[in-house]
Structures
1.
Amino acid sequence: GYDATVANDVPHAWQAGPQTALLQKQLKAMKDGGTVIIAAPPNPFRCPPGPYERASMIAHYLKENKPKSKLLILDAKEKFSKQGLFIEGWKQHYGYGTDNSLIEWIPVSKDGAVRAVDVDGMRVMTEFGEHTGDVINIIPAQKAGDIAAVSGLTDDSGWCPVDHLTWESTLVPGVHVIGDAAIQSPLPKSGYAANSEAKVCAANIVRLLESKSPIDPNWINTCYSLITQQHGISVAMVYALVDGKVAKVEGAGGVSKSNDPPGRALEASYAVDWYQNITYDIFG
């Protein structure tokens, strides 16, 4: 029951613009006491903490404006990015784990994977059950864009295999693929990681054009998420090339310290600066 036309009524909102505006409009129009359903996709997908930050922001809106409502996360995974920190924040602000919780998260092991959708009936079906929502946000399974597929850059996974030294495609010589489209684990599919990849890739392309050996690369990822406007959490990591593959640098980075209220408020302010800095760095 799911195809591209479904997004006209049941938005994915994973691409900014009309889709995010539609989701906002639906949330504002929903009655108090309504149910919002987010269907989170399987790995890998763009912005690993995104569905859970979105859930936090929607829960914050509901708490302030429609407190009788509920948000249900149906997940195709068993765990997610910054899970402990998200749940800690949900417990603090949204009653998570109680009978009156604003947020309920159902992992794949508890029948959380959505198998079908009925747009007219505003229902989503899992393997053993079904759920009715007033607002449904289905974030679909993802792959590299069509341009990558038609260019012969993708393998059977739907993503683009690359040489991590230079990010040159292992399928099409002379073409370099960075960002979400590339097979890059453990580097996440995040804008910050892509920015780091772009700089290293560009430097090595220049060296290749000059008939020089590529430099030994390092990359960095930093990601902030907001659970409320005053409650921020983050993850940061440095990566290096080990035996031709991306690997985490042990002891570098990490996630926010738990049970740290002053730190949560500080990181909420850092999140704003982080966003402004990375968007300026990318777009000028």
2.
Amino acid sequence: IHPHREADKQAANAAHRRFSSRDGDIPALINIYDAWLQTKKDKAWASKNYLSQRSLQHATSIRQQLSNLVKSIDAGIDPEISCLPEKDPFLRCLTAGLFLNIAKLVINADGVYTSSAHSNTSFANSFTGASDTLAPYKTMRGSQPVHIHPSSVLFALASNNMKKLPSFGVYSELLITTKQYMRGVTAIDGSWLPELATG
């Protein structure tokens, strides 16, 4: 939940930061969901942390549907097993599932575009929106310029220190306004891509 009043906005941002993940938005959502489950799905806890109880309940419903589907096809998979504390198996699975939604960083550690067409353009100008085409990322499919959405936990990394941006990311959706924004962005390891492309 993102309130409109400034004082409430700051409280909400502080609450949401407690669940953030350096790996990105989807791991942050998992942190929220797991914390909510530990409270036994407490509505007051969700409200206090500026989270939508209704959305959390909807996530539970979807998870149950997926669990039932896995059980019904009898694939020999136990939907209650988790790979935690290992995160790579989850991130690899996410990468495979969102394979058509991969974006690659197109600037180097000094904030200069690796593409010769943008070699004299700084990251600071692109990030503040000097031009639509000067985005820090390009989609792997279609080479579309894309920005990290301001609601992403990775946006703060980009604002504070461009060198912390992941070289590759998957996104759950593109939002098009004055620019193309990636939402639901999660950092991934680019070395996984050849294997997942053929698997």
